Amino acid sequence: MPVKETTVEIKLDNLKNNLDYLKSKISRQTKFMAVVKAFSYGSDSIVVSEELERLGVDYLAVAYTKEGVDLRKFGIKIPILVLHPQENDFNEIINHSLEPSIYSFRILSFFVDALKKENKTTYPFQIKFNTGLNRLGFIKKDVQKLCKLINLNHPKYIFSHLGASEDLGEKNYSEKQIEEFISISETLEKELNTTLKKHLLNTSGILNYSDYQFDMVRSGIGLYGFGNDIKYKNSLKPVLTLKTIVSQIHNLDTGSSVGYNRGFLAKKSTVIATLPIGHADGIGRQYGNGKGEVLVGGKLAKIVGNVCMDMIMVDVTGLNCKEGDDVIFFDDNSYSAEEFSKKANTISYEIISSISRRIKRKITR
Ligand SMILES: *Cc1c(COP(=O)(O)O)cnc(C)c1O
């Protein structure tokens, strides 16, 4: 697909391929929660959520309430978990039929107050337990007190989150987290005298610890095409392709400099291509000064000088490159966002979720 401006292409067939692949790793009875926080990891939350709903996922998850409200406004009907509600969110959560994750006594009290105001005695919610990530969630010693507070309104699911599911060097730690989750679940179920539905695994959890899929799994990065390991390169297909074009070419003599603060100095005759994309579009300054590389006519070209807000300059010396040519930042073929981001010491999650709203989206199959 040749482009005329900076464009993110969203390939929905790749999304389906990834969903099918991840589902093939779990049992047919296990429900699937698709994580669509942060604009569906930088893609397009409405288009992607509609497609996922159409493909039959059971649940969606967002980080913040506004993200869930936006999905409801666009007519998404399936259950939506809000992972990280804030204290003032609960009226909106209830009015838009979102399911809050309750992760602390403080946030539970705001939830209870909102239910009272709405004259509701029950409402679907989930409880998050901290089993070692030490980010959000109740811990084991909270269980007794928690049980008294939720005795009349049981959670629809309880869940936890693994901190290093992609790192098999940390297998012992992951197994300790799994044990802790099972132990907390058993205590809670005994206290409430019921069985509760559970979920634990994210993408790498599905790939590495599928024995612990419980009643549902949660996947984000895998749906967008990354398995956090090179061995999934042929099974998972990146959904996003980021392309731009060469706006202008400059032929520089030795000693000329490029960009703000003269970040690049030409040690020989150098050909520079200016691209219409910058740090405001999500290509951070860490990609500048020779770290990041883009594909120009199938060949790697280094990003030189400092990344500007709206532009990037690349060294195309010796490459067959002219104004108006296509430039690939990452695609679903030879050069993935994982490879691109590694050069600047970061990860696929960060580069794709940073792609700014100002870049044009193009939806294809
Ligand atoms: C973001 C997130 C996920 C998705 O993780 P992936 O590694 O992208 O699959 C799952 N669970 C929680 C709690 C999250 O915050």
Q: What descriptive keywords fit this protein?
A:
Lyase, Ornithine Decarboxylase, Chain A, domain 1; single chain; 8-stranded parallel beta sheet; alpha/beta; binds pyridoxal-5'-phosphate; TIM Barrel; 2 domains; 365 residues
State the assembly state of the protein chains: single chain
Tell me the series of helices and strands, N- to C-terminal.
EHEHHEHEHEHEHEHEHEEEEEEEEEEHHE
Bound ligands, named by name, code or SMILES: pyridoxal-5'-phosphate
SS field, number of helical segments: 11
Number of strands: 19
Unreliable stretches (pLDDT < 50, length at least 5) are: none
Describe, in plain words, how this protein is organized in 3D.
- The protein is of the alpha/beta class and 365 residues long.
- It folds into two domains: 12-226, TIM Barrel, CATH 3.20.20; 240-364, Lyase, Ornithine Decarboxylase, Chain A, domain 1, CATH 2.40.37.
- Helix content is 28%, strand content 22%.
- The chain has eleven helices and 19 strands.
- The strands form three sheets. A nine-stranded mixed beta sheet has the order 11-14-17-16-15-18-10-1-19. The protein has an eight-stranded parallel beta sheet with strand order 8-7-6-5-4-3-2-9.
- It is elongated, with a radius of gyration of 23 Å.
- Pyridoxal-5'-phosphate (PLP) is lined by residues 35, 37, 83, 161, 202-203, 218-222.
